[in-house]
Amino acid sequence: IAENEAQANAFWHLRHVISIAMRPEGAQAKYDVSVPVASVPAFLKDAGEAVERAAPGARIIAFGHMGDGNIHYDVLQPEGGDRAAFDAAEGRIEEAVYDMIDRHRGSISAEHGVGLARRDDIARRKQPAEIAMMRAVKAALDPKGIMNPGKMI
After folding, report:
1. Which residues pair with 28 in a beta bridge?
2. Alpha-carbon dihedral 124, 129, 132, 138, rounded to 10 degrees
């Protein structure tokens, strides 16, 4: 926790350069997830083990808003690993991460909402009543559909 403005600025700088620093590391599978705050440590442990089974040697970078349960959960190809092999494992990695999110009563979409990239995934992971509720909230807040048109949330 930052104790002054300079520390806060330094933390924000680190948060923004993490993604840039990962670029040279090769292929990545990126997830923006959320779990209840109390479940963050168990989720990180369980998801790490599940990813290791799905893609042995893959590296995990988890950062962001862990204090509120929102996590940028990025899986990088193994150091020196083959990109094609990692790309082939991406479906298994996604299932592993999503299964752990379900186990820990979380969501595959955190503070950024559900966009085009996760639309089909959320439809498979949520009950129809939950999706209807999401759409009803969006309709109530944006009855003319001018905010993020064509998107679920």
Report:
1. 76
2. -100
Domain 26-112 has CATH 1.10.760.10: no
Tens digit of each residue's pLDDT (9 = 90 or more) over 5-21: 999 899 888 878 887 77
Tell me if the pTM is above 0.85: no
- Predicted confidence band at 102 (pLDDT cuts at 50, 70, 90)? very high
CA distance 121 to 63: 22
Q: Is 15 helix (H, G, I), strand (E, B) or coil?
A: helix
For 49-54, which contacts have Cβ atoms below 8 Å and span 24 or more sequence positions? 50/96, 50/97, 50/99, 50/100, 51/75, 51/93, 51/96, 51/97, 53/96, 54/89, 54/92, 54/93, 54/95, 54/96
